[in-house]
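Good morning,

Attaching, inline, the C-alpha cells for the sequence recovery test we're adding to the shared suite. The designed sequence is right after.
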C-alpha cells in the first residue's frame, strides 16, 4: 500500500456556518495514486471534485473527522476499507441494451458466424466490467432462444463487489431498454415488493465473479465474445494497451470484442480488425 511521507494536515473550513472538510493536495495525491495502483482508474485534477464527493460519503458513513483520518484508515490494511474505497471510486453507469446496435450485431452477424464455425455447439461470452448486470442480462436475452441445444455460458465480472451483488440479485425497479417481447418472456416475475426479477432461464447461463482486470485472469479457456464497454475510458494508454493484448489472447480466432461508443483502438498497437461500430474481430 502507498504510504504518506509526512503526517497529513487534516482540516476544515467554515462556509456560511457550514463546516466543510478540506482535502489537502497530499491527501488527494495519496488517494488518486492508491486508486490507480489498485484499479487502474486514473483520477486527475479534473476529477478532484468527484473524488472529494465520493470519499466524503465514506467519511460521513464512518463518522470520521476528516480526510487525514480516512487516509490513515486506508493505511491500516486490516480494516478492509480498501475494498469500500475502490467500490466508492468506480463509476457504474449502465443500462439494459445500452448501445443497441451491439446487440443487433451480436444476434445477426456474430451468432451467424458461430453457427457456421462452432461445430461443438458451444459458446462462451464474457462481460468484463459488468456493473449492476444490465449488460450480461442483455447479452443473455439476445442469445437465449437463438441457439437451441447449444451449451452457452456467460461470465460476468467486475471489480466492485457492491455492483456484483446487485447484478447477482437480478432485481430491477426499471426495465427501460428491454424490448417488450423480452420483458414478457424473461422478466415477468414481478416481485412481491417492487420491481422485477430476471427469470431463472436467463440467470442460469450467467456466472458473476469478482475480477480486477489488472490482475491475473483465472479463466483457462478462450472466449467467442468479449464485451468490455465503457471501462477502458477510465484507464491510461499503457493500461489500455496491455488489456487489449490480453483480450486478444483470451479470444478465439474469429472471436469478437465489443468496446464502448467512445472507445477505439486507433491509437493502440493491435491486430484486431474493425468490423462494426466499436466492434473488433480477432
Ligand atoms: C461505466 S461501467 C460500464 C458497465 C457496462 N459495461 C456498460 O457499458 O454499461 C464501468 C465498470 O467497470 C468497472 N471497473 C473499473 N475498473 C475495473 C477494473 N480494474 N477491473 C474490473 N472492473 C473494473 C467498474 O466497477 C464499473 O462497474
Amino acid at each position: 500500500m502507498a504510504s504518506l511521507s509526512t503526517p497529513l494536515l487534516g482540516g476544515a473550513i467554515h462556509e456560511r456556518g457550514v463546516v466543510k472538510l478540506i482535502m489537502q493536495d497530499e491527501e488527494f495525491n495519496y488517494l488518486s495514486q492508491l486508486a490507480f495502483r489498485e484499479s487502474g482508474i486514473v483520477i486527475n485534477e479534473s476529477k478532484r471534485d468527484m473524488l472529494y464527493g465520493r470519499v466524503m460519503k465514506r467519511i460521513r458513513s464512518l463518522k470520521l473527522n476528516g480526510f487525514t483520518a480516512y487516509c490513515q484508515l486506508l493505511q491500516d490494511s486490516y480494516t478492509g476499507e480498501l475494498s469500500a474505497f475502490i467500490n466508492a471510486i468506480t463509476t457504474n453507469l449502465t443500462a439494459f441494451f445500452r448501445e443497441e446496435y451491439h446487440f443487433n450485431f451480436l444476434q445477426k452477424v456474430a451468432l451467424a458466424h458461430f453457427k457456421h464455425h462452432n461445430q461443438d455447439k458451444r459458446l462462451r461470452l464474457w462481460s468484463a466490467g459488468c456493473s449492476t448486470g444490465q449488460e450480461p442480462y442483455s447479452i443473455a436475452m439476445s442469445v437465449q432462444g437463438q441457439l437451441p441445444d447449444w451449451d452457452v455460458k456467460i461470465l460476468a465480472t467486475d471489480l466492485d463487489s457492491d455492483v456484483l451483488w446487485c447484478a447477482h440479485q437480478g432485481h430491477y425497479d426499471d426495465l427501460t431498454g428491454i424490448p417488450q417481447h423480452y420483458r414478457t418472456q424473461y422478466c415477468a416475475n414481478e416481485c412481491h415488493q417492487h420491481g422485477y426479477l430476471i427469470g431463472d432461464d436467463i440467470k442460469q447461463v450467467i456466472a458473476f465473479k469478482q475480477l480486477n482486470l489488472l490482475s491475473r485472469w483465472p479463466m483457462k479457456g478462450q472466449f467467442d465474445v468479449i464485451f468490455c464497454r465503457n471501462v477502458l475510458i477510465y484507464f491510461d494508454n499503457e493500461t489500455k494497451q496491455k488489456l487489449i493484448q490480453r483480450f486478444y489472447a483470451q479470444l478465439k480466432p474469429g472471436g469478437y470484442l465489443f468496446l464502448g461508443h467512445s472507445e477505439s483502438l486507433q491509437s493502440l498497437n493491435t491486430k484486431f480488425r474493425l468490423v462494426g461500430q466499436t466492434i473488433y474481430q480477432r
